[in-house]
Structure formats: C-alpha cells, structure tokens
Amino acid sequence: MKNILLAFLLSLTVFDLSFAQNNTKIDSIIQTEFKDQNAPGGVFLVSRKGKIIYEKAFGKANLELNVDMRPNNVFQIGSMTKQFTAVSILILESQGKLSVNDPVAKYIPDYPSGNSITIHHLLTHTSGIKDFTKMKSISDIAQKEMSPKMMVDFFKNEPVDFKPGEKFDYNNSGYVLLGYLIELISGEKYEDFIKKNIFDKAGMNNSFYASDRKIIKNRAFGYHQKSDGYVNKTIINFSVPFASGSLMSTVQDMLKWQDAINRNLILDAEYTKKAFTKYKLNNGDEFNYGYGWHLKDIDGIATREHGGSIFGFKSMGVYIPSEDIYVIGFSNCDCHSPTQITRDIARFVLNSSKVNRDILKTSLKLK
User: Fold this and answer.
1) Which of 24, 162, 264, 333 is 20 to 30 Å from the Cα of 224, by its Cα?
2) CA separation, residue 142 to residues 135, 240, 364 (Å)
3) What is the pTM of this model?
C-alpha cells in the first residue's frame, strides 16, 4: 500500500514539474517571434483531452490606446473560415438537401463548365476555377459591398486553370462559391446559417461574421509593419473574401469548435469523417486535403491543420487526433506568422506527452 501511495505521489510531482517546464518551453517557442511586448502580438492556446494546459497573450491588442493583448481577444481568422464553410455543406448534405457529388450546374445552371465541376471539387480545391485573389482586377472590388452572386460573377467567366480533379491547387474562389451555394440551398444568409448551425450549437458566443463597423467587444485591431513602423491594416470589405475568409473568433471559441467536432455536436460521425478523408485526383494520386482541413503529420503522427491570412491578421490551428492535442495561435499583425510556432508547439507537446507516459509507467513499477 505504501509503494502504491509513493508511486502516486511521485507521478504527481513529475507531472507538476513537467507542467511548469512545458509552460516555460512553450513561452520560449512563441517568443522567438512574439518578443516585443509593445508591438502587435498574439494569443496561443494548447489543450489536451479537451482541457486547456496553456493559454497566454503577448504584445498589444491596440497600439493607439496602448491596450495589452488578452486571451479573450477576438481576431479575424482568415482562411480558417473554410472549416466552417465545409462543415456547413456537410450539414446540408446530412439534411438531404444536397450531395457533395452534385454538379454546380444543378444549383447555378449558367455556371461555365458547371456540369463537370462538383461540390466535392470545390471543397477539395481541385475544381480548376480561377482564384479571384490572383486576379489583377481584385483591387477594383476589394472595398466594395459585393453580394455572393456578384462575387461569383466576378470570377466565373475566367479561363479555368485545369480540368476538374486533375490537380490540387488551393483556391479561395471555390469556397466563395460554396458560400453562395449554402445561401441558395438553405434560403438563409451565410452568416446566419453559420451562427444558427455552428456557433450557437457549440457555444461559440464570441465568434462572428467579420465587420469593421459593428462594436465587437474585446476586438484585437490588425496591423501591417512598414519600414518606419506599424500602420493600421488595409481596409477590405468582408463580402469579398466571404465564405473563404470572413469569420472572427477567439482561441477559446476555437477550442469549443474542436470539441464540438469531436463530440459530433454539429455533425454525425458519418459526415464528420468526410471532412478528414484524404481524396484522390483523377490519376489516382492521393493529396493531403479533406474538406476544409489540410491532413498532414508531425513526425509521422497524423494532424489536421489549417491557417489563415487576411489584412492585419494571421492564424493557425493544429489538431493531433491520436493524442487529442489542439494548438491554436492568432496574430494581429500579418508581419508575424503563428504557423511554424504552432506546429513547433504541437510537436513539443506531442513528445512531452510520450515522455510523461513513460515516466508514469516507470513510477508505477515501484509497486
């Protein structure tokens, strides 16, 4: 009995020390990029088994007012929006309102090559349609209020880059088109659909369709870095990135999102699985993207990842399913990317979890 108690106390001591050491190490990883506390900064969160094991803010949320960043600040998340768009499509499929194998022409009869481009192609970035962010004329509309139809009309007549299914090529136009389909098929505005079917169900009370006009509590302001210092971010009308990049959130809300996915609160497992399946091109080659997530690995351990970049902000999230480890990082200056930092933290926590398990096994042998 004494040996069992000793093993238990030893394991607690080891984990207490490990926890403190882990926090110090994570701090050091983040501070390679986010070291100036008087500059725009960021927020990072790490969870394991759904529990937060690290959460910290760095730098300033607002330079003009000298406001420190806090963990509950709201950021624009850019292309991490695509996760929500993809899941919204799967929600509609689960309701019997569409199939991912449907051609675009079923819903937009006049869409060029719409009979050969499917919803699946849009979700997986294999449609070949022109990415509107690469069009020179994008500057003409960047600050205009655009309806979803106007956005689709903006790029739909551009020559395709390749035939559907021939290659993977990351594409924002496909997700704008998906947002338009969500509105056509559901009869609701995209932002209303997301709020009702995802934000509300997951308890994401601090997540929004982006706006520069609405009063959003705890908003982090976005910045660019120029040769002579920082400047406020370039204004963009959020109707332009639309369903490809116009959502806002906090790191804690993004953890709620991850938890809702894991617990099938938003979708049944049958449909959730579709988002995390690696698909194949026409020639049979597999590529590392599902529906709204990159499907990669860290040291051979499978991950689900996605980042985002929009004027003044960058974001990155990494989830390791086998260990239930989630790492999310936001930055309010597009001069500081959390992408590699987030992956480095995920790798460190993954390796620490393995070491801690070995230590616990060893301590229990004292019985």
Assistant:
1) 24
2) 11, 6, 61
3) 0.92
pLDDT for 11 beyond 80: no
Query: What are residue 330's DSSP bridge partners?
Result: 43, 315
Phi-psi region for residue 318, left (φ > 0), alpha (ψ -120 to 50) or beta? beta
Tokens (6 digits) for 196:
């009702």
CA-based R_g, the chain, Å: 22
Cα distance from N-terminal residue to C-terminal residue, the chain: 8
> Residue 82 is encoded by which pair of tokens?
């695509």
Q: What is the model's pLDDT at position 21? A: 78
Task: Sort 282 into a burial class: Cβ within 10 Å, 0-12 / 13-18 / 19+.
Answer: exposed
- Tell me the CATH number for domain 2-364: 3.40.710.10
Tokens representing 103 are 């051609």
Residue 5: pLDDT band with limits 50, 70, 90: very low
List the Cα angle 7/13/17 in 5-degree steps.
145
3-state secondary structure the chain: CHHHHHHHHHHHHHHHHHHHHHHHHHHHHHCCCCCCCCCECEEEEEEECCEEEEEEEECEEECCCCEECCCCCEEECHHHHHHHHHHHHHHHHHCCCCCCCCEHHHCCCCCCCCCCCEHHHHHCCCCCCCCHHHCCCHHHHCCCCCCHHHHHHHHCCCCCCCCCCCCCCCCHHHHHHHHHHHHHHHCCCHHHHHHHHHHHHHCCCCCEECCCCCCCCCECCCEEEECCEEEECCCCCCCCCHHHCCEEECHHHHHHHHHHHHCCCCCCHHHHHHHCCCCECCCCCECCECCCCEEEEECCEEEEEEEEEECCEEEEEEEECCCCEEEEEEECECCCCCHHHHHHHHHHHHHHHHHHHHHHHHHHCCC
Q: How far apart are CA 366 and CA 253, in angstroms?
A: 42
Confidence of residue 113 (pLDDT cuts 50, 70, 90): very high
CA 283 to chain centre: 29
Q: CA-CA distance, 107 to 115, in Å (whole number)?
A: 10
Q: 335-366, pLDDT tens digit by residue?
A: 999 999 999 999 999 998 776 555 445 444 54
